[in-house]
């Protein structure tokens, strides 16, 4: 019959078993050289259990990021983290860690005292024990855990439930957002024969933007107005469901008297809404009038000022 030792502080239960772990065994030779060579953390190869891939992460001198000292730390990690994000997957599992007593050919088994399911998901894909076993106990030759500088760990993982919850979103509001200004000079305007023009790309809020100008109008401004828009340079950089809230101003400069024509608006940009602006930004008659300063020596100057105030993305 297995002997059991409870640790109420960590909610850890330890038992003795002759049966080897059925899912994974990790044998480490020259164990003492890990510390001597500065290897504070070791990640095992991947192994299959319950239809998913897992791996072990061992800290031979304790997980310093969690202020662990004088104990070995061991964790179970869900290896395919990408599927937790892409599918919103949650995997519930019960797991046990094994440490071979090589003198008695039996295993110390460490597991949650209450056999609780642990939920692996996009925000938590690692579970385990900060204090698996005291280093002093582990190094004591009489315990048989390390023999000829070799030790053997193991793991069993039993998946109990799988769920795919609804979508989740994170909204990040930018504090002290910075305005970015881009000036676009269009020469030989009267000789343009394309339906629309695009400026060079420019950055604002870690996103590339461009200005689009339709010399003869677009949609309900076709044939009567200049149409002007701000657009994402490449919407594929936004992940599925992501969007960006931007405040922007577009203007055509009056190169004579600085009485610029400007429009200002806010818009949520996304993969399905990649542009915003005005089909009737300025009438063709006004734009081409010599006294307005919009077109001087066949040159038009367009400006954009963009401020990204918030970004929403899926979790």
TrEMBL record:
Domain spans labelled MATH: 21-157, 179-306
TM spans (from-to): none
Pfam families linked to this entry: MATH_2 (PF22486)
InterPro entries per UniProt: MATH/TRAF_dom, TRAF-like
Signal peptide: none
Protein name, as recorded: MATH domain-containing protein
Organism: Hibiscus trionum (Flower of an hour)
Lineage of the organism: Eukaryota, Viridiplantae, Streptophyta, Embryophyta, Tracheophyta
